């Protein structure tokens, strides 16, 4: 089942935000707001979840800083509401956070592409950069690549490092380890 779009061009942005926050969807479905559209995505497949789990496990084992990996944490970023595959913060940072949180203190967001890879590559990248999230890690299943975007400035990331699945990618401080993408193949 593909993600469903609900065109909402006639509504104000606040009405859209309220609609997302009050929308009732079946368990496992995710609701996001981007580019004036409410996107409802079905539960992810096993490969998607396994990739997220693999990154989380490596972060917990190897990151220099003690971190929390929060799957499916709602983030309020400029003009959008997103639910990344993973939100990484210093341990305890989001303990008292609301379901939809301001991204202040987020160290890294992880997205694993599925039904809408173009949204992950463009709209989410720009929104996360505008929110000044230091690192955006995109596992692009369609392209067979992992991209690490860093150095957010002026609404976009200034640096990106891209590797094919199977090649390692170095995560910067405060993680300071080489992410093994061999399991992604």
TrEMBL record:
Can you give the residue ranges of the Putative restriction endonuclease domain?
Answer: 23-179
Q: Which UniProt keywords apply?
A: Endonuclease, Hydrolase, Nuclease
Q: Name one Pfam family in it.
A: Uma2
Which InterPro entries does its entry note? Answer: Nuclease_put_TT1808 (IPR012296), Restrct_endonuc-II-like (IPR011335), Uma2 (IPR008538)
Report the GO molecular function annotations. Answer: endonuclease activity
Q: Does the keyword Cell inner membrane apply?
A: no
Q: Which domain of life is it from?
A: Bacteria
The record, for SUPFAM superfamilies, names: Restriction endonuclease-like
Q: Does the keyword Hydrolase apply?
A: yes
Q: Which PANTHER family match?
A: SLL1072 PROTEIN, SLR1083 PROTEIN
Spell out the protein name for this chain. Answer: Uma2 family endonuclease
State the organism named in the record.
Answer: Streptacidiphilus fuscans
